[in-house]
Amino acid sequence: MADPKGFLTHDRELPARRPVDVRIRDWREVYEDFPKPALTKQAARCMDCGIPFCHNGCPLGNLIPEWNDLVYRDDWREAAERLHATNNFPEFTGRLCPAPCEAACVLGINADPVSIKRVEVEIVDRAFAEGWVTPRPPERKTGRRVAVIGSGPAGLAAAQQLTRAGHDVVVFERADRIGGLLRYGIPEFKMEKRHLDRRLVQMEAEGTEFRTGVNVGVDVPVARLREEFDAIVLAGGATAWRDLPVPGRELKGVYQAMEYLPPANRDLAASPISAEGKHVVVIGGGDTGADCVGTAIRQGAASVTQLEIMPRPPAARPGSQPWPTYPMLFKMESAHEELEAGGGARVYAVSTTEFLADEHGNVRALRLVDVEGPATGFRPIPGSEREIPAELVTLAMGFVGPERGPLLTGLASLASRDFFDARGNVARGASYETAVEGVFAAGDMGRGQSLIVWAIAEGRSAAAAVDEYLSGRTALPVAVPPTARPLV
Ligand SMILES: Cc1cc2nc3c(=O)[nH]c(=O)nc-3n(C[C@H](O)[C@H](O)[C@H](O)COP(=O)(O)OP(=O)(O)OC[C@H]3O[C@@H](n4cnc5c(N)ncnc54)[C@H](O)[C@@H]3O)c2cc1C
Ligand code: SF4
User: Fold this and answer.
1) Phi, psi of 142 (to 5 degrees)
2) How far out from the chain centre does Cα 91 lie?
3) pLDDT score recorded for residue 373
4) How far is CA 306 from CA 97, 187, 412, in A?
């Protein structure tokens, strides 16, 4: 512990966000730079706890007190080593993770937690800037071939670990570019894609092969894949979205969030589905909804309203969500700040009952009602029905599991036992193995809709299982078993 009084002398601090009226005119990340002396103070707040609960909060088991100490002591290179010891892609988690480590930080019991995520991202950005992130190709090749299906964080983490273990790894991705939701779900203002691209350069130099535009199960039959590869890692995500089957759902202008966000991310200047000049309603109060809000504002929406069926969450931890659990709190994400600055609103405890059409079959308005709930099953409150203008609607209501396309149905037909679990995800044994010999599953495809940090943790762990399956032993680390769950 570098500074025994750091947590007493310094308050928690984060970098400022760029002014709203400036940042909504571009797609760049919203945060200003954080000066080094300010970061040193934040690292100094870490108490180097005897039992560091931050470790328990983080599925990757990140060595947080170690890198806080190293940053404080100005040993950035070693800090970058320790960071990469448990996390293949700290530049993704440092920007995008909701930081269960911070929710579990011991300092959080009676003060503000350590700014762990900010320290993480500053270390990895410096490591790239200094040229410390170099390819680490294997010393020996095994001659075994592994197919990874899906190039989101789970697939990329598995691929990098397996490539470094000496296997020949091919990542198949049906989209035109690599990255999964990191590429086409998460907007540029949360993570500029250059961070993804520079990591892919490292992976290619290490020997990982990427094949885009290949829908496995359709373009490459499952049988051929099994013939050509010694093991398969399924990392196709949980892409089957939850819908809103109310009257008018079929109208033009009502989209799923994952129909709206990918074209916006593909072409920042001219998405074919633009909110420009339109009254936009985002249904769903979570992070995907916030991504739609920030995107619509940057496209020049006339107004943006975000609807949520749940009541407004509390601002501080309620007794029912004590430390070190991850609490459901009222959050002011950057997109929410932009929403409020533009006169938009977040409306809680409402349910959409109907979409209304203009004479051309376009959505023009949305009918909603206040609801009581959730204990009463979201009972409508009589007399609260009303209409709001809605010329573009995005549904950001979560995902129900992986798609049952030819890939999974083809594999399920070969399975000796249940290929899917009770929630409809791909079932895994203790070593991430599915019910088909030589086929493993990691990330949202096995866990259901989750977080990037869980996807990376699962990708690393599944890689260890595959390496052991192929080589009879492994030196790759296991971050979590497939049954691990967040602290609740
Ligand atoms: C809009 C949005 C924003 C989010 N923001 C955050 C955030 O800020 N922080 C956070 O922690 N989490 C966030 N999440 C959740 C997070 O992105 C996911 O949990 C994570 O990406 C899951 O990783 P994955 O590798 O399992 O799957 P994915 O990232 O979904 O990648 C799966 C990939 O597999 C491909 N694929 C599927 N089937 C096939 C096939 N048959 N052949 C070839 N390729 C196939 C898909 O095209 C896709 O590219 C967000 C989710 C969404 C939808
Ligand atoms: S729990 Fe918080 S204070 Fe303790 S070691 Fe982890 S980051 Fe530092």
Assistant:
1) -95, -20
2) 12
3) 83
4) 22, 17, 39
For the chain, the distance separating the N- and C-terminal CA atoms, rounded to the nearest angstrom, is 29
The pLDDT, as a whole number, for residue 121 is 98
Quick check: 68 and 40 in contact, CB under 8 A?
A: no
| β-pairing verdict for 379-380 and 168-173 | unpaired
Residue with tokens 């890692």: 233
- Residues of the chain falling short of pLDDT 70: none
**CA-wise closest residue to 474 among 206, 162, 59:** 162
Token pair 């680490």 is found at: 136
User: Collapsing DSSP states into helix, strand and coil, what is residue 306?
Assistant: strand
Decide: 121 in ligand 2 pocket, CB within 6 A. Answer: no
Residue to probe by mutation, ligand 2, list 5, 10, 47, most atoms within 8 Å of CB: 47
Q: How far apart are CA 152 and CA 177, in angstroms?
A: 11
Q: 3-class SS at 389?
A: strand
pLDDT, one tens digit per residue, over 465-476 is 999 999 999 999
Closest ligand to residue 148's CA? 1
- What pLDDT, on the 0 to 100 scale, is given for residue 487? 83
Cα Rg of the chain (Å, integer): 23
Global pTM?
Answer: 0.98
CB-based burial of residue 120 (10 Å sphere; 0-12 exposed, 13-18 middle, 19+ buried)? buried
- Alpha carbon distances (Å) from 175 to 29, 185, 216, 328: 24, 12, 11, 33
Cα–ligand 1 centroid distance for 450 (angstroms): 9
Q: Is the CB of 47 under 6 A from ligand 2?
A: yes
Give residue 238's identity as a one-letter amino acid code: A
Q: How many CA atoms lie within 13 A of 371 on its CB side?
A: 21
Omega cis (within 30) before 324? yes
Nearest atom (ligand 1) to Cα of 261: 1
CA distance 76 to 123: 7
Confirm if 217 and 148 have CB atoms less than 8 A apart: no
**What is the residue with the minimal CA distance to atom 2 of ligand 2?**
105
Distance CA(108)–CA(110), nearest Å, equals 5
- Other residues' Cβ atoms within 10 Å of the Cβ of residue 182: 24
Rounded Cα distance, 234 and 223, in Å: 15
Mention every residue, 6+ apart, whose C-beta is less than 8 A from residue 436: 411, 414, 415, 416, 419
For ligand 1, whether the C-beta of 217 sits within 6 Å is: yes
pLDDT for residue 488:
76
Q: What is the pLDDT of residue 29?
A: 98
Phi/psi of residue 256, each to 5°? Answer: -75, 150
